[in-house]
Design brief:
The complex is a heterodimer of chains A (211) and B (606). With 211 residues, chain A is mostly helical. Chain A has a domain of 145 residues: Up-down Bundle (Four Helix Bundle (Hemerythrin (Met), subunit A)), CATH 1.20.120. Helices cover 70% and strands 0% of the residues of chain A. Chain A contains 6 helices and no strands. Chain A is elongated and about 55 Å long. The N and C termini of chain A lie far apart (76 Å). Chain B has 606 residues and is mainly alpha-helical. Chain B folds into 2 domains: 454 residues, Cytochrome c oxidase-like, subunit I domain (Cytochrome C Oxidase, Chain A, Up-down Bundle); 47 residues. Chain B is 67% helix and 0% strand. Chain B starts with a helix and ends with a helix. The chains are: A mainly alpha (211), B mainly alpha (606). Chains A and B meet through helix 2 and helix 5 of A and helix 6, helix 7 and helix 8 of B.
């Protein structure tokens, strides 16, 4: 051990463990999520800056109010999916492919339940309250913000389902636990974003104008 | 992985050739060349657009162009130079040299790197396709709402612009993720962060700026696309929207973008000056930390582009002070460059000439920049030719002079041959004279009241002479680049053989042959200082690494070529283009994108 240099000398382009001991694919996911913070930050800032500027109802406080109990349940469903995701990562890390499959499917199921809730919510707003994306600035900013979050959840569900399919083809093993872990990072991020949206859009909205 | 070792012999021994090898390449050097050539062509297109604008302004009341053509040309000149010329020219150097400078064999994600290039190419083509389909964007490069809304831009122009920028943004984002990880994780043994060449450092800061600044403009463009296609009213005040929201989102991206354009040039100059002054960079640590400080401050000054919107005294003051603060780290760098030259035995070869001119020109642009950091002064100068003078001194006098210095400095490494020094010096003097003749008079006509983007001007305002000088200067700049093109074309065939290190530089890219072998380093170098090649003869391992071990002995294997990045990039662009041409294309594009992405993910990387 005269020099620390030699382990890396025979390394190749694809050797994932390099200077910092960080893994390339995991590092890039963190950087991507940092970028995503700015993306959702901009969408949320847009929503907040346009809040209360609708010229015609319905908007929160005027012939409209959120169904807080309903959304609380769907938010909880999404948060519980993060627990399932953690259990999926734990399962693959100890080589339990069956457990991985079960928990990945559970995560997907909870994610789809959340998406179903969002679909139900959107249709209710649209049909019962007459709120379209072009009705007023509240409708525009609300549907675009929550819609982009929903699109992110959808991508996450497809990603996790792809992993499940890979597992049935025998392409998911303990050595590829990183694949599941990285998908998990993305999934948790999308959940955390929903916490912010739920608080700022739903909980802080004016009440009492509707129904 | 015996298969890989078996393939290795072929990959390393035979340098792939032919069109297919370029379409499927994942070699960072080839991708760098693709970026460089493509961006230079776009640079020439942007230059021709500028020449047409200058011809229209040569005399009062000229009708060389119609007002509509004029609007398209100044818009596309700005858009092209920012997004299709300077950014990808910086990306060319980033791709080719950062892995070499940190002693890596490739980037962290070679296929993602190819994907970035193809998305950039397709995005640039899509944007320019507008010229032949209904006209190019015509509302200025920052696309202020509501000019871009349906009521003022009913044709496809704003769609081409918004989708084109969105696609180009994806290219830059992917590249930024890739290079952040590359610089963090792929450094050679001993290449600590504070031994990285300044160019690597400035590119590192730049990639962070891209990763964090592009999402806001992505959101801004998404909202614009929704306004145009789904009847929302985000930027229409009569429906509760806010045109100022566009300005905020655009400039939250747009100001970091200024540093995205200029920081790589700072890095290039910080590498070039020590080589020619024959002494280390003065205050390397200060240069690095100043670059980081500029990166941070760049995010909190965006509203100085918006003083004229009337934000009120508190916001004006805050953004004015933050803006003036940036002069400090920038000034530090300028003093460092001067300190590097001070008492140096500077050999004024072409790269050094351009680098020194860069300092001088950038100082002029920086000084006028501090002038309009002050809101009362800015209100007089905004939307006048004074602003045009300012940003051309920082972006042409700064970025383009720096990039040109970099081209003369590093092209011998890429081509394996030296560029002609005499032609280089002719290029330099013509460009320096032409540049100042074009842009210095703009200060005067600007303060004299000539508005920017004006189609024409009446005689008798005293602007005639200045405008004529400007147009003549612009043509001198164009001629100077003919010398550059001629120089490169001739020298790549018959220039003097460059050898490993023609300039006697100290950084790693000069330790390997010119042009470098596909595997870059047969043996990964061991780095002990900021200028490893100046460490003296004791470090023979580093100065002759290629000779000591053959790549086969070192078990180098290279990433396999892949066409999936190209396919995926095509899918991304088609999905975007569908918003312009019909959503059927978007559907097809998404299917191609998914097919490409899945095949890419399942394809063995090596």
């Amino acid at each position: 051990m005269t020099t620390t240099a030699h382990p890396a000398q025979h390394a190749t382009v694809f050797d994932d463990h390099r200077r910092t001991g960080l893994i390339n694919r995991k590092t890039v996911m963190w950087v991507f999520l940092g970028s995503e913070c700015m993306f959702f930050g901009s969408l949320i800032a847009t929503y907040m800056s346009l809040r209360g500027r609708s010229l015609n109802p319905p908007y929160p406080g005027a012939e409209f109010s959120f169904d807080i109990p309903f959304t609380t349940v769907s938010a909880t469903v999404l948060l519980i999916s993060s627990l399932a995701m953690v259990l999926a990562v734990a399962a693959i890390q100890r080589g339990d492919i069956r457990g991985t499959r079960i928990w990945l499917l559970a995560t997907c199921g909870l994610g789809m339940l959340f998406l179903g809730g969002q679909f139900y919510e959107f249709t209710t707003f649209f049909v019962a309250e007459g709120l379209g994306i072009d009705t007023n600035i509240f409708g525009s900013s609300f549907y675009v913000l929550t819609g982009f979050h929903g699109a992110h959840v959808t991508v996450g569900v497809l990603w996790l389902l792809s992993l499940v399919i890979l597992s049935f083809r025998g392409k998911l093993s303990q050595s590829s636990s990183l694949d599941v872990e990285i998908a998990g990072l993305y999934w948790h991020f999308v959940d955390i974003v929903w916490i912010v949206i739920f608080v700022l859009v739903y909980l802080l909205a004016p009440h009492g104008g509707g129904h | 992985m015996t298969v890989n070792v078996g393939q290795l012999g072929h990959a390393v021994a035979a340098k792939p050739t032919g069109l297919w090898s370029w379409l499927t390449t994942v070699d960072h050097k080839r991708i760098g060349i693709l970026y460089g050539v493509t961006a230079f062509i776009f640079f020439l297109i942007g230059g021709i657009e500028a020449l047409l604008v200058r011809m229209q302004l040569f005399v009062p009341g000229a009708t060389v162009l119609t007002p509509d053509q004029y609007n398209q040309l100044f818009t596309m000149h700005g858009t092209t130079m920012v997004f299709l010329a300077i950014m990808p020219l910086n990306a060319a150097f980033l791709n080719y040299f950062v892995p070499l400078m940190i002693g890596a064999r490739d980037v962290a994600f070679p296929r993602l790197n190819a994907f970035s290039y193809w998305v950039f190419l397709f995005g640039g083509l899509l944007m320019n396709l507008s010229f032949v389909i209904g006209g190019a964007p015509d509302f200025g490069w920052f696309g202020y709402a509501p000019l871009t809304e349906r009521q003022f831009s009913p044709e496809l122009r704003a769609d081409f612009w918004a989708i084109g920028l969105q696609v180009l943004g994806i290219a830059s984002l992917a590249a930024s993720f890739n290079f952040i990880v590359t610089i963090i994780n792929m450094r050679a043994p001993g290449m600590t962060l504070m031994r990285m060449p300044p160019f690597v450092w400035m590119q590192f800061v730049t990639q962070w700026l891209l990763a964090l600044a592009l999402p806001p403009i992505a959101v801004a463009l998404i909202l614009l696309i929704f306004d145009r296609h789904f009847s929302t009213n985000f930027y229409l005040s009569e429906w509760g929207g806010d045109p100022i929201l566009w300005q905020h989102l655009f400039w939250i991206f747009g100001h970091p973008e200024v540093y995205i354009l200029i920081l790589p040039a700072f890095g290039m100059v910080s590498d070039i000056l020590p080589t020619f002054a024959r002494k280390p960079l003065f205050g390397y640590t200060f240069v690095v930390y100043s670059g980081i400080a500029i990166g941070f401050l760049g995010f909190i000054v965006w509203a100085h582009h918006m003083f004229a919107t009337g934000m009120g005294p508190v916001a004006d003051s805050a953004f004015a002070i933050a803006t003036m603060l940036i002069a400090i780290p920038t000034g530090v760098k300028i003093f460092n460059w001067i300190g590097t030259l001070w008492l140096g035995q500077t050999a004024y070869k072409t790269p050094a000439l351009f680098a020194v001119a860069f300092i001088a020109m950038f100082i002029i642009g920086g000084l006028s920049g501090v002038m309009h950091a002050s809101p009362p002064a800015d209100l007089q100068q905004t939307d006048s030719y004074f602003i045009v003078a300012h940003f051309h001194y920082v972006l042409f006098g700064g970025a383009i002079f720096g990039i040109t210095a970099g081209a003369y400095y590093w092209l011998p490494k890429i081509l394996g041959r030296m560029l002609n020094e005499r032609l280089g010096q002719i290029h330099f003097w013509l460009m320096l004279i032409g540049f100042n003749l074009t842009f210095f008079p703009m200060h005067f006509v600007g303060l004299n009241g000539m508005p920017r983007r004006t189609y024409t001007y009446p005689a008798g305002f005293g602007w005639e002479l200045m405008n004529q000088l400007e147009t003549i200067g612009a043509f001198i700049i164009a001629i100077s680049f003919l010398f550059f093109i001629y120089n490169v074309l001739v020298s790549m065939r018959s220039g003097a053989i460059a050898g490993n290190n023609p300039w006697g530089a100290g950084t790693l890219e000069w330790s390997i042959p010119s042009p470098p072998p596909v595997y870059n380093f047969a043996t990964l170098p061991v780095v002990r200082s900021l200028y490893p090649l100046w460490d003296g003869p004791n470090d023979s391992r580093l100065t002759t690494p290629a000779a000591s071990t053959t790549p086969e002995e070192a078990h180098v294997h290279l990433p396999n070529p892949s066409y999936w990045p190209l396919v995926t990039a095509f899918g991304v662009t088609l999905a975007g283009a569908g918003i312009i041409f019909g959503f059927v294309l978007t559907g097809i594009g998404i299917l191609i994108l998914l097919a490409g992405a899945y095949s890419w993910a399942l394809e063995p990387a090596s």
